Amino acid sequence: MTAPALVVSIHDVSPVTREPVTFMIAALARIGVRRVSLLVVPDHHHHGNITADPEFGTWMRDLVAAGHEPVLHGYYHQRQRQARESPRVRLFTRFYTAGEGEFFDIPFRDAQELLTRGRDELGQCAGVAPAGFIAPAWLLSRPGEAAARELGFAYTTRLKSISDLAAGTQHHSQSLCWSVRSRWRRAVSLGWNPFLFERLHSNPVLRISIHPPDLVHPRIWRQVQDLAVRALETREAVTYGEFVASRQK
What are φ and ψ of residue 127, in 5° steps? Predict the structure, then answer.
């Protein structure tokens, strides 16, 4: 890879979201983004495991064969509330993530168990073991990161960085992403992301992270595509795995 990189990732991929994700992948391909990182949830909100849906498995294997990358994205994508949570914990796990910060404060052993199950099930489903693990909402405890490293995951990401777990290095780049749960969040997102896009103009990697609900809001989805098209003028679309591997050379 000689050009700066563009990594487009689609979050919350599961049998529940297969239809909108299929639309997103096709729409991105039409504008030139032909390889994306697919962040797969093995049992999305306890609605059914990916290994129990043969059609989802076939779909995933076809996408991998086409050059897309499967990435483990939590296990349930849901965090159980705990007694006597601090204001900081409530801020991150309720307001910021709406209860989806599954790995925010997870202990090592719990993380190890979920990561092992998720890696094996996604590998079975996609036909290839995932190289990367990305926590829901990018909220990953230090013990959770240690578990991912011990289990051999090549990389993880947080909102502002990509971490090469084997080399112990970080690549700083804040991801563009859109929050659509309320009108004021959508307005802020529409103003913030073009600003962030310009600020990252000279960064070696630009990240665009999208979610299935983004499709429901035409202005959001139009901005996603417009910024991706602009990025492709100077950047090469790659997956997270490809970017991390290229930086190891």
Answer: 85, 5
